[in-house]
Write a structure and sequence with these properties.
The chain has 586 residues and is mostly helical. Among the domains are: 243 residues, no CATH class; 42 residues; 61 residues, no CATH class. 74% of the residues lie in helices and 3% in strands. It contains 23 helices and 2 strands. It has a two-stranded antiparallel ribbon. α7 packs antiparallel against α9, α10 runs antiparallel to α11 and α13 runs antiparallel to α15.
Amino acid sequence: MSCFPPAWLLLLGALLVPYFTGKYRSWYVIALTGLTLYTVTALEPGTFWHVNFFGHDLTLLRVDKLSRLFGIIFSLYALVTSVYSYYMRDGNQHMSALFYIGSALGVVFSGDLISLYFYWEIMAVASVMLILARKNRASYAAGCRYVLVHILGGLCLLAGILMHINATGSVEFSAFTAQNTANYLMLVGILVNAAAPPLSAWLPDAYPESTVTGSVVLSAFTTKTAVYTLIRGFPGWEILIVVGCVMALYGIFYALLENDMRRILAYSIINQVGFMVTGVGIGTAMALNGAAAHAFAHIIYKGLLFMSAGAVLYMTGRSKCTDLGGLYKTMPWTMLLGTVGALAISAFPLTSGFTTKSLIIEGAVHEHLLWAWMVLEIASAGVFLHAGIKFPYFVFFAKDKGLRPGETNWTMLIAMGVLAFFCIFLGVYPDPLYALLPYSMEAYHAYTPSHLVTQLQLLMFSALVFFLFLPLLKRTETISLDTDWFYRKGGKLAYIFLDKAGNSLNYICEKCLMGVVRTAAGFFADAPARIALFVMVNIWLIAGFRGRHLELKKKKLYSDVLQGALPVGLGAAVSTAFIVLVFLIS
């Protein structure tokens, strides 16, 4: 198993899911994801599974420090989510999740652009199945919009790959240095999956419409595979600093406006991925380590937050902050574990966010990027406002709405407990994570007095602002317009235009052309009889037949022709005339 592609375990194992039922299916999924985690940890460095594909050498398994880091967190999170979803009996969701996670692992361990694209598209298809699994009108509509956006991103990626291969002749997936059209197309395709504005609305539009477990699974993989490919392919591209800073602020702004708890967390993903994209754009060893480490930590604490939100939705059937409150009384463990995730995403000392996010900020300081440092610090304060305080406060501590659902099931609590443990463990003792990073971390220490004081001041100020302006932050039944408004409305306008213009043109063409076709069809249905009548009537008129005698001859001739009883002489005469006409024309 030391060189077996982990992705294949999940992709092939997903095909066996229908053969298990009930709790045996859940145990099978847990065992499969556990085996995948073991396989990833047992991988040896190097490249394996070389395949020739139409003259190109594909590398289906590349193991180095970067791919191993993302492989470990992906497979670890897969195992935890399989425990979380133990209660679920929907085989389709289990299959979709395994295909989705397996394809994400395939992207991480791909050593070439062709196999990467193959897994990339499987990931897109499997993820939309998780969105559609909720089987209501909102999930179907969100799934359709999700597909359209990801088709666009996939086509950009494919076009860039083909142009790159045509220009260089190489399919190797490594850092791109040339800033040409091909590489920019690939960058755009990857940024779509990273949820970079203006094509970011698919994430808060689709993830909250998924099932309880679907959103938990979706929260980890699509955007993090994008971060991985950016670290691998585009380190030091300065345009990513701008993109990342915009994402960091963009996610905060909309998360503060949002009312739905899972949509708050979805916008928070955009904010957090913005930190990672900024780190990739800075491109130094510290910043790239920060992007990778923060992706690792983000999967854990964001998954914990989505799990706690999912547990609330599972027990109450409600997702809007205006419908929730006072749940700490009956869901104390969910509240406690969710609060750990909220503190971790806020980079509170002794949590994983504190030991990973600071790497990116320090990377900006070392490169004297003052404006980027200021944006990231502002974004850090905003994170504490919307995810660190707003989410747990309005869901668990705000005005009691009288809900008494009781605590969630034990497998959900176990999964949340595991992630909460890692949030604290990697905050107290980050060395195991630092040892996995692609570059050396010997000279960095997170717990310096200046860093501690600065972060605590930032968090205390953010908390003060929240409670001072709490009346303004209370959620109401409102709708926040995002950039998806343009293609939602644009799609409707395009449909109306095509309906009116296109169908009107179809109607006109049908009236004009189909009328001619119907007339011709009617004529050729009994063309021999008509031609025979035309010829013979004129002959009979010359011969002196009139009136009743002429009508009888016409009826008899018409009947004979339709029955195939046409006189041989007449047929020969018509054939001869046709041949003469052809010779005269030619």
